[in-house]
VOC family protein (Streptomyces polychromogenes), 264 residues
Amino acid sequence: MTEAAGASRRPSGTPCWVSLMVHGLGRTEDFYADLFGWEYEPGPAQLGPGVRAVLDGEEVAGIGEMPPDRHLPVAWTTYFATDDADCAAEAIRSCGGTVAVGPMDAGAEGRVAICSDPLGAIFGIWQDSGRHGRPYGKPGTPVWNELVTQDTLTVGKFYQHVFGHESERHPAASADFDYLTLRLDGRPVAAVHGVGRSLPHDRGPHWMTYFEVHDTDAATARVAELGGRVLSPPRDRIRGRLALVADPEGAVFALVQSAGEDAP
């Protein structure tokens, strides 16, 4: 689905990181530690209070804490690698997107910005120093990122122009199944799923993070035991056995027991 484990730096336009902003850091840390086996270490001070999730000695995700007076929706954010965050930010603006925060320095980590596409889906860009290898692909790590939006036509072109993605419509695409795979050098890196009026009214367009697990059914049951919610029970899909869940603060994510390296 994504690059092999241990790659130190990802090509520009590739999803490279995920982060979560929450109201209560401690409870969230406990939830994901139990579910995925994460441990934690302090995050970059420039990005505010937060931690880095660590698995087998490698960083896999970031979790930050909102100020007490902020009451924003809690959601996972997908970040795309870029060789130049400032140039990428200009491209986002010129293509109809918005740059809400940054670009700003994140110490030795590089430069980062929080943006949104023309239909409002939030994502980040990260000019990474390449200092960290990240074990993507093993259980407990992000393995796929998919944009859930109204339709693929306009927003698909936005990501193509900003990040140089090539788009490929799914062979089964039809009036009832609107799906684009985004590729770089022929390799799938992300997807855009147009769901029309089925888009959740309380969320709007959004990037979904898929986390690999050993056993989707067991992990889904554990989410419920830990105080999360099961939004869509496990079922077999193209990329493997998939479930949609939410953590105790409501952040939605997918659990997947991957079918193989060629998925989706």
The chain is about 15% helix and 40% strand.
